[in-house]
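Hi F.,

I've been meaning to write this up properly since the lab meeting, where we talked about keeping a consistent format for the predictions we share between groups. The idea is simple: the sequence comes first, exactly as it goes in, then the structure tokens exactly as they come out, then a line or two of notes. No screenshots and no reformatting. I'm using this chain as the first example so we have something concrete to point to.
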Amino acid sequence: MRRTEPVGVFDTVLIANRGEIACRVIATLRRLGIRSVAVYSDADAGSRHVALADVAVRIGPAPAAQSYLSIDAVIAAARSTGAQAIHPGYGFLAENAAFAEACDAAGIVFIGPTAEAIRTMGDKITAKLAVAERDVPTVPGIARPGLTDADLIDAAAGIGYPLLIKPSAGGGGKGMHVVADAAHLADAIAAARREAAASFGDDALFLERYLSTPRHIEVQVLADAHGSVVHLGERECSLQRRHQKVIEEAPSPLLDAATRAAIGAAACETARSVDYQGAGTVEFIVEATRPDEFFFMEMNTRLQVEHPVTEQVTGLDLVEQQLLIAAGERLAFAQDDVVLRGHSIEARVYAEDPAAGFLPTGGRVTRVIHPAGEGIRVDTAIEDGLDVSIDYDPMLAKIIATGADRDEARRRLVRALDETAVFGFPTNVEFVRALLELPEVAAGELDTGLIARRFDDLAFAAADERVLAEAALLLDGSPGTGAGHVPSGPWARRDGWRLGPPAPRRYALVCGERRAEVLVTGSGSSLAVAVDASAPVPAAIRDAGDLRRTITIDGVTRTVAALRAGAGRVAVAHAGAVFDVSVERAARGGAAEAASVPHLDSPMPGTVVLVHVEDGAHVEEGDPVLVVEAMKMEHVLRAGVAGTVALHAAQGDTVARGQTLAVIEPAPPAGEPGEAQGAEGAGT
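Output, unedited:
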């Protein structure tokens, strides 16, 4: 059982997690003078959380199952370092009842709720039954253990269509199906059971009414071991893709004061239903057209990714509150003492490529520039030289902006994302910036389907003439203007110095599919630039600090972040977009050769988890050839043409982004003899 008597302030706490949340917890421990212990896998040996902690312990190889998910390894690390308590962060073991029990058995305080509370709230059916007993409203539907396919089908008519099939276990949208009519219900139930069993080892399902324009609103609660429960207001988390949150804010722009009080009271009753202790989040779904009607979805028995926005508007450190509650202290404030001030919005920064269907990326962070300024907070795990592994969740950082009101917070966040640059691989920074500029987002008119509806309308920057002209000026490297180290001396000059007028410099540049020849003339205050034989226009470039350059072309000025990535290469970042520009070199082979030997290249760094065909097999256009998995996402590589496969990778191989995994030799057109036929014919 959890001890309830005060145990004093801990002097050593182990963080059973990694990345930005481990760094975040360490920051509070350091402020409170508590010794921090980090754990790490082989993939994270050089990570930021390892460097920040007072002590770091290796707990296993890169796969999470052999390191961060190993209860025995984490408990052993706590014992060896004298840790009195373990903070689980979020993800990994944070909502694992067996881990909470293992901590208790080892005499180590688990900074979180009891194992019983975790189990109850970890099963959505059990959770709905528990909160319903305390009159917390739940979505109309059917939810009880042991529902058969026949039970679900019989109940559907009473619930009405459309309806939502949901697995009782797990999360992240896996196994969820929207069904529009009875004709498709049986097939959808079968599919949901298969997916739930594969993802969670539990195929239990339940049904709910499907809300057409749902908003996701959650309430932060704190509960001590002495019966006190308070809520800290709500967060709006409706901006989601594939059921994963992208932007979060506090408070919600939807709720009025009366609804805020009612939903907060319901959240506190939810916590009381399981004698909750610690920090937790109660998630509700609200129909956008009826904001006064809310329904319980689930309770997350841990700290949430988006907790900083609550901290910003309440002035409370939630990690500190977790520590005090776990140490047996009483809450030092009552519900009436909680006052929300201003507005705060958070954007999650992911190692993913929105333009490629949000495929995970990763690799080495060549350089990162974090924003700063009034009202800006950055919770991050990334730094220069960090290798971002494909073994874990792709979230890298969170950028939080706070203002006197929602519009000020949103504008500050847009500006902060303008100033953010991650060099080395694609991220979603430009995407979240564009999302914040949508009229619906600016007006607070949100729902969970907004991103899916409006994604194709988002404006992403292109590698236009301006980008290529900026790249040429940066590559030109006139003294005092280059990005990064610029050598000095007469032999290092690149401004065409000679007796008489300076010689022009020509740059044949390529950025993705965009190519251009850029001419740079003059030097100093007399620079000029021309793209693809256009008339030269005046240009100027000056250092703006921290890899930033202020560039003026034909009277238009903007500030970019620029990183020289070796001879003939430069990365230019502006408004969240990063463009890799290089001096073009002759391609190997001609266009005909490239077309005749199609390559299947890995779209992301990852692991080949399945090979559908044998080497030398024949495939038709569209046939699956290999499956690459990384960061909880699978991508199927399919044949672009019919032909014979030559495999360049095997199941289990770790592959890099862009690595060729298979080559398909196209089959000859119908009616044309192949090589073998020609040879046979010649011999007859």
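Notes:
The first helix runs from residue 19 to 31.
The two ends are 89 Å apart (CA to CA).

If this format works for you, I'll send the rest the same way.

G.
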